[in-house]
Structures are given as structure tokens and as C-alpha cells.
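User: Sequence in, structure out. Go.
Assistant: Echoing your sequence, followed by the C-alpha cells.
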Amino acid sequence: MLKNDKISFTLIGGEKEIGANCYYLNVNGTGIILEAGLHPEKKGIESLPDFEILKNFDTDYALISHSHIDHIGALPYLIQKYPHIKIYTTPQTRDIAEVMLHNSLFLSQKEILDTDPLPYYPREQIDLLIETFNIIKVKESIELEGYHHKSIKPIEISVFDAGHILGSAGFLLKTANHKIFFTGDTCASKQTIMAGADYPNENIDILILECTTATNETTITRKEEIKRFIKAINKIVDNGGSILIPVFALGKLQEMLALLNTLMKKGSIPELDVYTGGLGTEISSIYDLHRYTSKRTNNKIILKNIPQSQLNQENLLSDKYFKVPSIVLASSGMVFENTVSYLLAQRWLKYKNFAIFFVGYLDPKSPGYRILNSNKNDVIKLTASTEEIKIMCDVDYFRFSTHSNREELINLVKILKPKTLILVHGEPEGMKWIQTKVQEKITDIKIIIPELGKEHQITN
């Protein structure tokens, strides 16, 4: 590598796991924080990245790739601790962040009220925080220079569509001698709404690569998976049953709603009531608002025009879907305790002609993972404190991931040809698989699986 730049990388949160994502780059004295997320499985202080690590570093900017809470949920606490940091993200992420941060702050401080409180952060300050966001659009570039150290040449930041959800971005950082690309959460393949990621058309010196799906072997194509999905839906409906699809309110709900509507219009599945609601409905309106300002497979898809029935909290466990074949899109995608999907799953599991279909990532510690990895007639507990439930309904998984599969991740490394590869946002076995496969194909590459708080010197 060229020696005219001094670049280091430090993991602030999310060590060998998917949650509390936060990374620190020091580029010639300019401190850049990538992401500031909460951990979905943890509570209180334990759910935050270790921001104390940053106290010995210069901190100038934060680049936020998208608005999933494991990437943006800790941002209020980061800024409370380091209020001088300037935040950059896309306009779509800014709009979604306002909804997501208000919701996340309400849930977090409600759940941990007297046990392990997060630092106090008034809800009104979320609005003030959003107003401080600096906007950088996809395909645009800006120049950044640290407050503490003036570089010979500012760092050029360029934004690429990550294809993951609305507003998701990858960031290319250029110095005089080096190119660093941070993928964010990325999806190379097109989905029902999102059209797939764009990447730099040049070799990269340092690649910071997400590894969410690296543990999953994939041989089936999306087209084949849709055919299997259609067959499974028709089987349940023909038997008079309903289908629960746990979804993330941001991204997965919008994609599945659009896919189901497409299949109904084609006659591949019957015209069924599709139930949605809550936070996902608010986010769908932002998807509609930005349908001409983001890369899409079809910008004529208007989610609010798709027929939907409203999930009603008052009669959640006795609504029409228990009597008439229907499809329920309910958050959370991992069936976390006290969410709509959790409450519904407790009853859904008891119906022989019903089904629960998972369509996204499941944390190994989540109730959703426990359901998926059990067999019919098994008796399980969704959490340690709940009653035992016998699994009577069908349970299946369909890969409609919003992340690149592991073969696509390997292919990206081959295309960008980095000299240093930093693996983040993944489980240990998945990152190890990526490391092994890359080393088989590229012998002269340095691969880092970072440890929390350890500063890795990339250049001298």
C-alpha cells in the first residue's frame, strides 16, 4: 500500500454479531464514525455501542447508511455524548429516521424505566437532532476535513445506492492515495421494489464488508423461491388456513406487500385480505413519497393503493383472519416479546391448518429462530418466562433477503480487489467462511475480523 496516508479502524459496537453496529475510521487525523445502532436483543446501556472507546479519538463526522435501528438507534446517545459530530446521510434515511428514532426511543425508555435506564433523551430533541442531519444524495460527492487536524487534501465522500431498503447507502472515501468503501447493508440483487445495489467502478484499497447472510448456503434463485412461496400459500389457503408473516416494519413489510399484490394480480395466489398496520404504514407512506427519488424496479408501485386491512390491537387475537383465509404482515420480523407478531404467533402455532412463514434474518437468540428451528408437534417456550406451546401449524422459511447472499459478497470482493478487507455485521462462523473463501481466491489480501476497542492500523 502507499504510505502517504495514515488510516486506522476501530470497532465500537457489534463485535462478531448483528446489532449495535458502530465503527470508527481515522483518516489522516479526521475521525469518521460509521453507523450508531442499538442491539435488538439487549436492554439499556448494554444495547448501546461502547462510546467510551471514542473518548481517546478525534471525532468529526458520522456517516449513517440507513435507518434500521441496529444502525441508527444509538445516534441520539452518540450525539448527546459528542454533540460536535456532524451527521451525513441520504434524504430518504433522514425522513425514515424521524419515525424510527421516535418509536425506538419510546420503546427503549419504556422497557427499561427503573432497571437500567439509558441516558435521558427528551423526545423533543429527536426533532432537533433530525434537523441537524446533513444531506448527501446518491451519486453525489462532498469533501470533508477534520476539525482537529487539517489534511493536505480533504476526504472526498461519494454515495452509492446499497439496494437494501429505501435510502440505504454505501460510502466511498477517497484520500490522495487511498480508496475506502463501506458497503453498509447491501443487496446486489433486485427485490420487488428495490432495484439492487450500485458499486464503485474502480479498485478499492480498503473494503469494509457486511456479512449478515454469510452463514446461509444458497442454491435456489429468487424466481424458484417465489414459485415455492406461491405453492405454500395456496396449500394453506386451500385448507382454509391463514398465514402469519413476521416482518420488519422498515423494508421487509413494504417488499412483501408489493410481492403479494403482484402475485394476486397475476392470479398466482387468490385475492386475500392482507393485514398491515402500525409503524410499517407510516414508513410505507415515506416509500411512496420517494418513489421518484430512489432507484426502483418500478416507481409506479404505490403502497397506499394496495388493498390492506388494518391490524386492530383491540381485537388482535379474535379478528377475521382466524375465521377467513388471510395473510397477516406483522412486526417484529424476529417475533420479539410483546410485539404484534409475538402475540399472534402464540395463538397461530395452535392451528393445524395455519402457517407461519419467515422471510428475513433471524437472530439465533430470538423467538422466531426458536420457532423456525423446531419441528411440528414439538413443545417449545418462546421465552424463558412464557408457557409451553405445542407447534401445530406449518412453519417455513423463504429467502427474500434484503442482503446480498454470501456468493454475491465474495463476488464483490473479487470485483473491487481490495488490499485490506474488514469483515463486520455478521456471526463468527459466517465471517470465518468469507475469510476462508476470499483467501482461497486472493492470496495477497489482508483480512481483519475486528475485536471491540482494538485499533487496527491499516496503513503506516
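User: And one key feature?
Assistant: The CA atoms of residues 188 and 430 lie 18 Å apart.
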